[in-house]
Amino acid sequence: MNDRNKFANVYEYANYRKFLEAYQTNRLKTDKRFKRSVICRRLGLPNTRSYFNEVVKGRKDISPSFAERFVSVFNLNENEARYFCTLVQFNQSKVEKERDLLFNQLIAMNKTPKKFVNKKEYTYYSEWQHSVIRALLDVMDFSNDYKTLTKNLFPTISETKAKNSIKLLKELGFIKKNKQGYWKPNSKVLTTGLYSQDEMVKQYQLKTLEIGKQALLTLKNEPNSTSTMTLSMSPEIQQKIEERIQNLKKEICTLVHKDPKPASVVYQFNMQFFPHFKKFTL
């Protein structure tokens, strides 16, 4: 293991801020000179630690030129530097197509034995239809009739995409044949669990939210519960609401898991709770 990797291996991170924080924290244990204020000076900034703090806490982005400065200060080699700079672009991008392209570049550049994401796992979360088809197999009996399978999906997809989904679900072990020869999911509920990666799941969430917009405009005669609220509250109530949301998610998963009756419908459940301002000053 080289000196860089003993502090933090950049290839194991899907978030550049977490890499910077881990590297600095671990190196400081053996190199007392590697303080945040020293890093800022080496970046060409005044004698302060606030810039580094703002970056790792997600309150400040870094420009391409400053990404190159971090490469120098953190002594990354050419390949690590390319990965780090691409990771910075990916984490800061607000464009879905650009994020897809950059994420695929990160996977291609990651040649280490321990990768931050498995290619098949990423593929599962990269397209919305994989999880929907997995749930749909619990509702309908499917052996090899892809035409019927695609007709039951919203939005509709090609038979080729459906075949690719079934193939992936088989490879991941998410579905198996029952005694009647039909493909069925291994469990009622699949959470991110071992496959949890913040950026990977974020890509999936972006796609499901886009489908949600289509449903709002298209499924006019179908049961569709959509509501929005804009609220003002204290930080204490904000915390309580976040806790209630987590408890609700657990309760819903438990209800579905213990459902005594056969499944007959497939629904998408999305929740968002986000601030409408960045900072409030009295």
Structure in words:
This protein has two domains: about 110 residues, no CATH class; about 130 residues, no CATH class. The chain has a two-stranded antiparallel ribbon. About 0% of the residues have low confidence. The termini are far apart. Strand 1 and strand 2 form a beta hairpin. It is mostly helical. Helices cover about 55% and strands about 0% of the residues. The longest helix has 23 residues.
Neighbour order of strands in the largest sheet: 1-2
Radius of gyration: 23 Å
* Helix/strand/pairing category: mainly alpha
Task: Tell how many strands the DSSP assignment holds.
Answer: 2
Question: How would the global form be characterised?
Answer: globular
Percentage of residues in strands: under 5%
Number of helical regions: 13
Order of helices and strands: HHHHHHHHHHHEEHH
Main beta sheet: strand number and arrangement?
2 strands, antiparallel
- Uncertain runs: 192-196
How far apart the termini lie comes to: 51 Å
Query: How many structural domains?
Result: 2
Mean pLDDT: 82
Could you estimate the helical fraction of the residues in percent? 40-55%
